[in-house]
## 1
Amino acid sequence: QVQLVESGGGLVQAGDSLRLSCAAAGGTFSTYTMGWFRQAPGKDREFAASISWNGRSTNYADSVKGRFTISRDNAKNTVYLQMNNLKPEDTAAYYCAADRTSFYDSTRTQVGHMHYWGKGTLVTVSS
């Protein structure tokens, strides 16, 4: 069983930056595609970013492209989401997820594609 624990959320102002972390325990982290999703109040959970097992391939939702950067450190079993130039519309609970599929497929952006989930960390961006 894989446990994912997010941290780094908080209350910031528009234009600020935050870095989210997700620490994994159990399983084989270094073989998983990792993703970040987010869910705003009253809305469905949506894809934000994903990264291949070796960190060489990434994919971003259009809404965050150019502002967010996903990265990973397999030695630390941790994936990160650097969020710059935050906007009020980025306010959401952010969830880390793991896809244990053995190959990276950037089209795997649906909630149902992920096998393991963290409990989320809240990001609030004030205007």
## 2
Amino acid sequence: QVQLVESGGGLVQTGGSLRLFCGASGRTFRMYAMGWFRQAPGKEREFVAALSWTTGRAYYGASMKGRFTISRDNGMNTVYLQMDSLQPEDTALYYCAAKTRATGNFPMTLAEYSDWGQGTQVTVSS
């Protein structure tokens, strides 16, 4: 099992930026990818971004491309999500997740992830 702790959320005005952090511990040697998802009140959890630990390839949700950047700290089990040009519709609870199963699928769906953090709140005011 992988334990995940997110931080970096907060309140920001429209057009502003935030940087989220996620630290992983435990059985991190089993990770194939780390990802970010978000969930707004009354909505389903939505894919935001992911980074493959094996290929280094980054994946993004359609509305995040060009505004969000996922990266990792080399040698550390930490992943970052830089969020720029934030809009009120980006308001949500942001979750970090770890993919520990070699399914051969792209790490872009909830089903690919086995371990989840508690989430960090991002609120964008208009």
